[in-house]
C-alpha cells in the first residue's frame, strides 16, 4: 500500500503542494483540510479548520495518515507540529518554539543581531508613545513599522513622514487592526534595493535552498496600492546571481539554521528567506516558516525531486543525502483577484473557463480562494481567487504564456496586475 498524506491549508500554496505530492509514486491517497474546489480534483477535502488541532490529530489517526504537511503559518506558530508529534504522528514543519522565527518579528530581529546576520537596524516597542518619540528623534524617513506577530503578510507599513507614523501606530497598536500581532511593533530602518525570495528545506542541521523567486506585494500596476499577500511571482530572478548566492549561503542561510539550533530551537521544515539586495550587500527583510504564497506556485513546478523524498529527509535529519534539483525552465504566476482586494470584495461569483487548462502541458491554475456553490459550480471564495501559472524556456516566454492563460479563465470583478515580472526587462546582466 502507498502512503496516505494530509495537507493542512486551503489556498493556492496548498493546491501547489497537493499537486506536487500527487506526482509522487509513493502516495496513494491525499487528504486536504480544509482544501478548496481546485484541490478537490486531486485530494479528498476534509471540513476541518487549520487551527482545529485536536480534530486534525483525531482525523489523521482514524485514517492512518502516514505524513502530514502543514502549509500555513498560523497553525505552525500555534503549535500544530507539537500536537501531532505528541500523538505519535509524522508531520512536516517547525515546532512551535522554532516557528517563532516567523511568529515574532522582535524575536527574529534579536536573533539576527545576536548572531550578526545582515539585516536593517531596528528597535522594538510595546508602547505607542515610545514609537512616536523614537521616530521624531530618529528623523530618518522613510521608516518601516512592522507588527510583531502574524498579519496575513499585511502588517508592514512604510511611513514617509510623522503623520504616517502616527496613523500607522494607531492602526497597529491602538485600533489593533491585526489583533494581538500589534501588541509589540518593530521600527526598522528602510532598506533600498531589490527584493528576492529564497525558499529552503531545513532538517535541523543543514539547509538546501530552492530556486529563487521574486514577489509583487502591491495591489496595483507599477507597485502602487496597498500591500497584499502577493499579486504574482516569477522564478528564477536574474538578480540572484552566483555571487549573491555564495554570500547568502555563508552569512545568512546556514548561520540562521545554526543560530536556531544554538538557541535550543532546532528548525525542521521550510525557511523562507525574504532578502533585500541593498547597495551594501544582501540583508534579511523577513523570515517565514513555511512555503511562500505565491512563491510555492512558481518554485514547485520547477522542482525535479519527489517532494515526499525531500520532506522525509528533513524530518529524519538526512537532507545531506538529497540532491535538490530544479529545471532550467522559468515559471511565472499571475494572481487573479476579486476587484477590491485587499479591502472589500464580493464572493460567490461563478468562475468560467477552468476546463481550458486541462491537458495543457506547462500551464497550471492553482486555486487560492474557491469553493463549490449549492449547484456544484466553482465560485470565488476569497480576495485572491486563482493563480494562473506557466512555464517557459526563459522568463519572458514564461510571462507571455502566463498572461495568455489569464485570458482562458474569467469571473465577474476579475482583477490582476498587468506588469508581473516587469523587473525582468530592467535586468542588464
What's this entry about, in short?
By secondary structure, this protein is α+β, with helices and mostly antiparallel strands.
Task: Give the class from helix and strand content and strand pairing.
Answer: alpha+beta
Q: Name the poorly predicted regions.
A: none
Termini separation comes to 50 Å
Number of domains: 4
* Helical stretch tally: 13
Radius of gyration: 21 Å
CATH class identity of the largest domain: Alpha Beta
CATH homology superfamily name of the largest domain: ATP-grasp fold, B domain
CATH architecture of the largest domain: 2-Layer Sandwich
Q: What's the helical proportion of residues?
A: 25-40%
State which percent range the strand residues make up. 25-35%
What's the total count of β strands? 22
CATH topology of the largest domain: D-amino Acid Aminotransferase, Chain A, domain 1
Task: Estimate the mean pLDDT confidence.
Answer: 95
Principal-axes geometry comes out as globular
**Quick one: biggest sheet?**
9 strands, antiparallel
Kindly describe this structure.
It comes from Eubacterium cellulosolvens (strain ATCC 43171 / JCM 9499 / 6). Belongs to the GARS family. GO terms for molecular function: ATP binding; metal ion binding; phosphoribosylamine-glycine ligase activity. It is a single chain. Helix content is 30%, strand content 28%. With 429 residues, the chain is α+β, with helices and mostly antiparallel strands. Strands 10, 11, 14, 15, 16, 17, 18, 21 and 22 form a nine-stranded antiparallel β-sheet that branches. Strands 3-2-1-4-5 form a five-stranded parallel β-sheet, sandwiched between helices. β1, α1 and β2 form a beta-alpha-beta unit. α7 (128-138) packs antiparallel against α8. It is globular, with a radius of gyration of 21 Å. The mean pLDDT is 95.
